[in-house]
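User: Please predict the structure of the protein below. I'd like the answer in C-alpha cell form so I can feed it into my own downstream comparison script.

Assistant: Understood. Taking the following sequence of 547 residues as input:
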Amino acid sequence: MQVAAQEDDFVARWLAAGPAILAANHAAFRQLLGRAEKAFRDGDDAYAAAWCEIAAFHAVCNPSGLFASRALEAPAARIARRALGSSAIPRGPAAATGRPRSVLHVATSVEAVGGHTRMIRRWIERDAEAARHSIALIRQRKAVPPDVSRAVLAAGGRIFRLGTRRAGLLDLARELRAVAAGVDLVVLHVAPQDVVPLLAFSGLAERPPIALLDHADHLFWTGVSIADAVIGLRRSGRDLATGARGVAPERSLALPIPVEADARRRSRAEAKRRLGFDPSAPLIVSVARRVKYRSVGGLGFVDAHLPALLARPRASLVVVGPGERPDWAAAREAAGGRILVLPETPDVADFYDAADIHADSFPFVSTTSLLEAGLRATPLVGRNPFPPGAEILGADMPGLEGTMVASGTVAALTDTLVRLIDDPEGRAALGEATRRGIVGTHCGEAWKASLAAVHTAIAALDPVSPGGTEEDRADPMRTGLPDALLPFVHGADLERDALVCAQLHLMPPARRAAHALDLALRRGPGFGGRLDLVKCWIPSRIVARFR
C-alpha cells in the first residue's frame, strides 16, 4: 500500500538529515548572538536587546540543537543591568508563605483561539477565592477575550496592557518591573522568543518569586536564568527541562492543564444534528490550530485517515482548524464528501460534543484539545511513529495513561479507527475510562491540590542564581533525539531577513531605517514590499490602540 510505504521511511530520513540542518541553524544563531554582543559593546542597549529577541525567534522557528541558551541569556542580563539598573522589586508579604495572596500572570498576548489562553483563565477562576490575580500583557494587539476579562475582574485583579506609551523592549521591561512590584508570585506564560521578562527580571537584588509555565515544552525558549521554578505540564516536558535546559530537578514542578469537568453541552445525537450529520453515523473529529497539521512523508492528515473512511462508508471526518488545504483535495474527493475541513474558530463545543472518536492533530499534538474531547467520554486516538527519546512529540499528559490509543503506522491507525467504529460498546467504555482519568487529574479538587503543591514548593526554593557570567557562553549543540526530528515537525525555516523584518518596529529609529533600506534595496526574503516599509514605522502602541 502506497500510504504505508511513504510513511515507513520518513522518520529514518529525518534522523539522517536532521543533524546537518541543526548545525546550519546553530551557526546562524551564533551569528545573530554576535550582533547582539557587538551592539552591547557599542553601547546601544536597545539595539542589542532587539538582536537578542531576533536570535531567540530564530532558535524557536529554526531548531538549532538547543532548548535554552545561556549564551543568549547572559548578554540579555548585562543589557538589563546597564540599561535598567539592578535595584530591588519589592516582594509581596505572602511571597514566602506557600499561599500567595496576589499573583501576576505575564503573557505576551491572549487570544480567542488556543488552549494557552484557556489555561490562564481557568487558573485564575479556580484560584480566585484564595488570591487576587492580575495579568500583564506585553504585546496585546487585539481585544482581550471577554471571558479572560471577566475572570480577572472576579478575582479582584487588573489587566495591564504594556507599551501603550512606549513600546521598545527596554521600555516594556521597565513597565513590567513596575507592574510586578509588591506581588507574591509572578507566573510567566510568555511566547518562547519574548525576551521582555528576561530583561525585566535579570540580575535584581530582590524580586518576587518567578515561575515559568512550560507551555512550549517542545521548543526553544528564554527565561531559564530567571525562573525560580519551571512548571511542566507533562512528563516529557519536565524531562527536557532538567536534561536539556539545565533546570535543577528541585525547580522542575508539575501542574496538569486545568479543564472543565462538566464540558458537554449537548448529547452526541443533538450536536450531530446541529452540525448537519446523521446522528446514527460514526463521526471522527479533530480540533487544533492550523499550524499543528503538517503533511509528513507526502501524506496529509486526512490522507492518513482516508483508509478507515473507505473501509467504513458511513463514517465521516471533521477537521476544525486547518482551513483551506489544497494538498488535502485528493483525499477529500476520494472520501466522497465525508471529509469536512474548517478554519480555526473560538467555539468548538458542538464539534467535541458530536464526536464518536477524537483524532489528535499530527505531527504536532494538541494537548488541550485532547483533554477537552476526552471529557466528553470520547475515545482519543493519534499517530506516534517516533522512537524512544522523542516522547515530547507524543501525547503524554497525566491522566491519559492507558486510555490514549497511539498508533505507530497508518495501517495501525486504520485498524484502531475501524475497531472503534465497529464497536459502540467498547467505544463507550474506553471513552468513559478516558473521562475518569482526566477528571481525576485535571479538574476540581485534584487540580487545586496540584496547584497548592506547586505553591508550597516555590515558597521553599531560594531565588535562582542570576545569570550573566562569562561561563554561560557555552551552548553545546544537541543532535540526537528529539532534536534531529524537530526541524521537520516544528521548524518554520525562516530566513534571517524575515526575522529582522518582524522586529524592525522594536529597533531604535536610526537602526530601523538602515535595516528597512537594506531590505528594500536587496528585496530580501523577509521583505514584502512598500507595506513593510510603512509598517515598520508604525509603533506597536499605535497599532494596539487602533485595534
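That's the full C-alpha cell string. The longest strand covers residues 102-107.
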